[in-house]
Amino acid sequence: MFSKKIVFGMIAFVVAMLAFGYSSLDDRTAADEMLSADADHLITLEEGIQYTARFRATMEPGERVGGFFGRDMLETILADEEAVGVRYYYALDKDGNPTLVLVGSDKFGHDIVDGPIAQKSLPCPPWCSLESSVLSSDIVVQ
Questions:
Q1: Most buried residue among 46, 49, 58, 89 by CB atoms closer than 10 A?
Q2: What b/e sequence results for 77-115 when a residue is b if at least 16 CB atoms lie within 10 Å of its CB, and e otherwise?
Q3: Rounded to 5 degrees, what are φ and ψ at 90?
Q4: What are the mean pLDDT values of the chain's consecutive 10-residue runs (142 residues total)?
Q5: CB neighbours of 123 closer than 8 A, spacing ≥ 6?
């Protein structure tokens, strides 16, 4: 489970975004480029390995490192004609385990809250890809 410090940090970040900058997303060129259906969010495998290794270095053994959402759920969120992408929010489930909440987002960066919202992912562990290079345990964090 995330430490209280990490959870409070995530909450503070979301609150700060809502209070201080979120409404100005329409005016930021960089954000406009990312708030589109064809934005380039690709990274290399090495970057993915490093990102996940840094995260796992902050965790206790056996804590959740990810989850799985099926294509149908993602397509259901994206089926809204206003949706250009999916926003995720860090969250804790009713048992206090880390999870994500997914919601559609429009071209202005606004959540589409009258559409489908997802959370019920298959957690990892136990439902992890056993062959995933992204979760390699012998990588030195840079």
A1: 49
A2: bbeeeebbbbbeebeeeeeeebbbebbbbbeebbebeee
A3: -70, 140
A4: 50 43 49 66 81 85 85 92 92 87 92 91 81 70 60
A5: 64, 66, 67, 97, 99
Provide the pLDDT for residue 15.
39
- Rounded to 5°, the CA angle 89-44-135 comes to 65
C-alpha distances out from residue 64 to 2, 40, 83, Å: 9, 27, 29
Give phi and psi for 62, each to the nearest 5.
Answer: 90, -10
Number of H helices and E strands in the chain, helices first, is 4, 5
Beta bridge pairs of residue 68 = 122
The tokens describing 5, both together, are: 């410090």
Partnered with residue 76 across adjacent β-strands are none
Grouping H, G, I as helix, E, B as strand and the rest as coil, residue 85 is strand
CA–CA distance, 68 with 79 (Å, rounded to integer): 19
- Cα of first residue to Cα of last residue in the chain, in angstroms, is 23
Give the pLDDT score at 65.
Answer: 82
CB 38 within 8 A of CB 87: no
